[in-house]
């Protein structure tokens, strides 16, 4: 497992369009996923210990952000043939187990991860309602371990700010996680 950190936020960068199949049987596009005040596009997977450490808090925060008009979509771009835990069936199982309040879609060709420049899981892209990037940072200070209650909720606070002002925070700490598992060329 290779741990990587994300690049800094490129404020105003426009979200690339996508059309990806969800575990709910629907094909999701960028516009379908957008909320009235913004959208969080996140690259996650099932097997990554960084993602596993935040899942319950991620579900809590995104359910709360929905009340602020911020919607979210989770994209799984890993190669499931190399990582069976990331298969489509396992995506359904994990989403049901944790009660994901957002669509969970698969990027089978990995073209969406490449278009976004995603490097790791989790990798968060917070957009305002005009599809302009305003956040490219960490969830919180957790890494592979669950952190104690009361830590600063970096992602939550940033997305709340975007909901209220359409601008993200100037100071952002990069996300860290497992490398995206690219298919062999």
From TrEMBL:
Residues 9-161 form the Thioredoxin domain. GO terms for molecular function: antioxidant activity; oxidoreductase activity. InterPro entries: AhpC/TSA, PRX-like1, Thioredoxin-like_sf, Thioredoxin_domain. Coiled coil: none annotated. This is Alkyl hydroperoxide reductase. It comes from Thiobacillus denitrificans.
């Amino acid at each position: 497992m290779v741990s990587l950190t994300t690049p800094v936020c490129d404020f105003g960068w426009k979200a690339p369009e996508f059309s990806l199949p969800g575990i709910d049987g629907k094909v999701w596009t960028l516009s379908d996923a957008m909320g009235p005040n913004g959208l969080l596009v996140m690259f996650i997977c099932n097997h990554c210990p960084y993602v596993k450490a935040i899942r319950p808090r991620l579900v809590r925060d995104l359910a709360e952000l929905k009340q602020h008009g911020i919607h979210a979509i989770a994209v799984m771009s890993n190669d499931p043939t190399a990582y069976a835990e990331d298969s489509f069936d396992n995506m359904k199982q994990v989403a049901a187990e944790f009660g994901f309040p957002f669509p969970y879609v698969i990027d089978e060709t990995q073209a969406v991860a490449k278009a976004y420049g995603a490097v790791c899981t989790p990798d968060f892209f917070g957009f305002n309602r005009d599809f302009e990037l305003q956040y490219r940072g960490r969830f919180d200070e957790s890494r592979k371990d669950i952190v104690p209650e009361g830590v600063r909720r970096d992602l939550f606070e940033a997305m709340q700010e975007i909901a209220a002002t359409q601008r993200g925070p100037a100071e952002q700490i990069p996300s860290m996680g497992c490398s995206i598992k690219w298919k062999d060329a």
